[in-house]
Structure formats: structure tokens, C-alpha cells
Amino acid sequence: MKKEDKGLVIETLSEQIKASTVLYLADISGLNAAQTSELRRTCFNKGIKLEVVKNTLLRKAMESVGNNYEGLYNALKGNTALMITDQAKTPAVLIKEFAKKNKLGRPELKGAYVEETCYLGANNLEFLINIKSKNELIGEVVGILQSPAKNVISALQSGGGKIAGIVKTLSERPQ
């Protein structure tokens, strides 16, 4: 590959990395052409950009972005596929399901960068699957905050009916 081509690849990767908050590194070696094509199609359908990259070019792209990607540098060995998305756990679920389906153990998680934190190794796959997105956490907090307010409103509404019933009974009573 010519130096100009490498520079262009690094620049393109840098732009893609800057635009996303979630990166997954996976090892897809051992997959045949049909399986690789199926993996690419599945990734596309789930909004994940899958790209097989050279480790040195990816490292240079990560260095040029300037975020804390240092934790992923140790994972840049062997065959590396880069998965770029904005959904924190979707790639982890896809990796697990696809590896289970093909019974090859591939793709295998090498590392991930999710919400400014690096995760190395396949042993973090279950954790990444169970991680909640920012929107899910916000939804839970809003639900928790709304619960007491709903209880108060419900009590006031039911209490108002009781008071109205008592007043009506008292007004109808002969004096």
C-alpha cells in the first residue's frame, strides 16, 4: 500500500472513530466467505459498520483522534475487524449470537471502547451485553422519580372523591 493510500485510510478511520462513541474490535479469522458476508449483512441491518483493518493503521487513527484508546492497543494483534456504532450493547449481542450460531467461537471480542471506557478480552462480552445505555438509565431514573408523584396525585384524587361524598351525605341529611 502506498504512503498516500495509508494516509487516506488513517484519515477516514479517524473521522469514523470521532463520529462514534462505541468501538468494538473483533477477531473474525476462521470465518469463510459466506459466513463473513452473513456477518457483514447482519451488522448492516443492525446499524453497525464492520470493517477489517490493519492494526497499525487503526492504531495511528486512534492516536490522531486523541481519546483514551490506549487500553485497546494491546488488542491490536492478529486479524482485527472494527465495529463502529452508537449503540453500546448491540455489537456484543451480535458477536455472542453469531458465534453461537456458527459454533466456531468467531467472531471473538478482542476489545471495546464504550462511553469512554476500554474493555479488553472476550471475558468482558457478558458484561457488555448487560450494560445499559444512557437512554435506558435515564428512562429508569424518570420512572423512579415519577412514581412518588403519581402516588400523591392518585391519593389526592381518591381523597377528593371521599370528601365530596361526605359533604353530599351531610347536606342530604335532615337537620
Short description, anyone?
The chain has helices at 3-18, 33-45, 55-65, 90-102, 125-130, 134-172; strands at residues 22-27, 49-53, 80-85, 108-114, 117-120. It has 175 residues and is α+β, with helices and mostly antiparallel strands.
Could you outline the blueprint of secondary structure elements for this entry?
Layout: H1 3-18, E1 22-27, H2 33-45, E2 49-53, H3 55-65, E3 80-85, H4 90-102, E4 108-114, E5 117-120, H5 125-130, H6 134-172
Antiparallel strand pairs: 1-3, 1-4, 2-3, 4-5
* Helical/strand content category: alpha+beta
Distance between the termini: 103 Å
SS strand fraction: 15-25%
How many structural domains does the protein architecture include? 2
Determine the fraction of residues in helical runs and give it as a percent range. 55-70%
Low-confidence runs: none
Jot down its keywords:
175 residues, alpha+beta, Alpha-Beta Plaits, 2 domains, elongated
Structural write-up:
This protein is α+β, with helices and mostly antiparallel strands and 175 residues long. It contains six helices and five strands, in the order αβαβαβαββαα. The chain folds into two domains: 3-131, Ribosomal protein L10, N-terminal RNA-binding domain (Alpha-Beta Plaits, 2-Layer Sandwich), CATH 3.30.70; 132-175. The protein is 56% helix and 16% strand. The termini are far apart.
